Amino acid sequence: MKAESILEQAHREGSGLENLLKLRKSLRVCDMGILMGAPVMDDVLPRMAVKLQQMVTERDKTGVRKEHPTNSRTTTVKKQRTTSQIRPVLSSTKLIQRVFCPSIAVFQSEFMERAEPVILTGVIDRWPAMTSRKWSLEYLASVAGDRTVPIEIGSKYTEDDWTQKLMTLRDFISSFVQPSEVDEAKDRRVGYLAQHQLFNQIPELQNDIMIPDYCCVKTSPPPKKMTSDYNTADTDDDEEIDINAWFGPAGTISPLHHDPKHNCLAQVVGEKFVRLYSEEETDKLYPHEGFLLNNTSRVDVENPDLEQFPGFSSAKYQEGILRAGDLLYIPPRCWHYVRSLTSSFSVSFWWQ
Ligand SMILES: O=C(O)CCC(=O)C(=O)O
Question: Is the CB of 297 under 6 A from ligand 1?
Answer without folding.
Answer: no
